[in-house]
Amino acid sequence: MLEKAQADNHSMLCVGLDPEPSKFPKAMQNQKDSIFDFCARIVDATHDLVLAFKPQVAYFAAHKAEDQLERLIQHIKEVAPNIPVILDAKRGDIGATSQQYAVEAFERYKADAVTLSPFMGFDSIEPYLKYASKGVFLLCRTSNKGGDDFQNLRLADKPGNPTLYEYIAGLAEREWNTSGQLGLVVGATYPLEIAKVRAIAPSLPLLIPGVGAQGGDANATVRAGKTKQGSVLINSSRAILYASQGTDFEVAARTIALETKNLLNAADKFAAPLI
């Protein structure tokens, strides 16, 4: 799905759907189903420019809008059936609970992929892999400053003393990728580390948040992550969603999405690899 969406729309852009009702146009605030209505209009305005949509489940759950998330994913599948939906959930729990989270992601919401934390080990991920047509993106090197607290620690008992994020990348590329369903989440704020992950995991799709409002450099991100083997999904959320708080918000969102798509494609065409 990723490869087809990338080819059809000539895009590396993933639009994150992180609805904050306080940032909606005033006329939409405090309205029933406003979260669905806002996000659906963003989808309608941008679906021909992207290779994926990434709804963040917490933004819906915080407003008791899980039913609107279900409707939104169904809407995406109706208007853009070839565009994959990545449920940004970052779940991570023991096997039995993971089975229920997998049901939530793939049966309730009918997402095409989900983000997970790998830190409880392979048995916490395995239930998701039983859904043969679905994908799993493992947190690897995240864009937040606190990621340094653990992800850069070196593992003295592993060959080469890799950092924790490098070790996760290796597991995802090899031992854990039993059926070709895994990808990695790496933050755009650390392009040199994206390049290290890509060297370890050349074939995996990389979901890269942090371009846009978080300040990630689009050019450096593409140079670090793009290969002929592995897809790159470069996510932008707030910069696109809230390009305008006027009644023209979806027009403004499309304008920024198109600019971002073109910026990424230009970087892909002209930039040399980072390492």
Q: How would you characterize the overall build of this protein?
A:
By secondary structure, the chain is of the alpha/beta class. It has one domain: TIM Barrel (Alpha-Beta Barrel). Helices cover 42% and strands 14% of the residues. It is built from twelve helices and eight strands. It has helices spanning 2-9, 34-46, 57-61, 66-79, 95-108, 126-129, 148-151, 164-173, 191-200, 218-225, 238-241, 249-270; strands spanning 13-17, 52-55, 86-91, 113-116, 135-141, 182-186, 206-208, 232-236. The protein has an eight-stranded parallel β-sheet with strand order 2-1-8-7-6-5-4-3. Helix 2 (34-46) runs parallel beside helix 4, helix 9 (191-200) packs parallel to helix 10 (218-225) and helix 10 crosses helix 12. It is globular. The model has no long low-confidence stretch (mean pLDDT 92).
Q: Please name the CATH topology.
A: TIM Barrel
What is the straight-line distance between the termini? 28 Å
The overall pLDDT average reads 92
Q: Describe the global form.
A: globular
Strand content: 5-15%
Any low-confidence stretches, pLDDT <50, length ≥5? none
Number of helices: 12
Number of strands: 8
Helix content range: 40-55%
> Strands of the biggest beta sheet: in what spatial order?
2-1-8-7-6-5-4-3
Top-tier CATH class: Alpha Beta
Order of helices and strands: HEHEHHEHEHEHHEHEHEHH
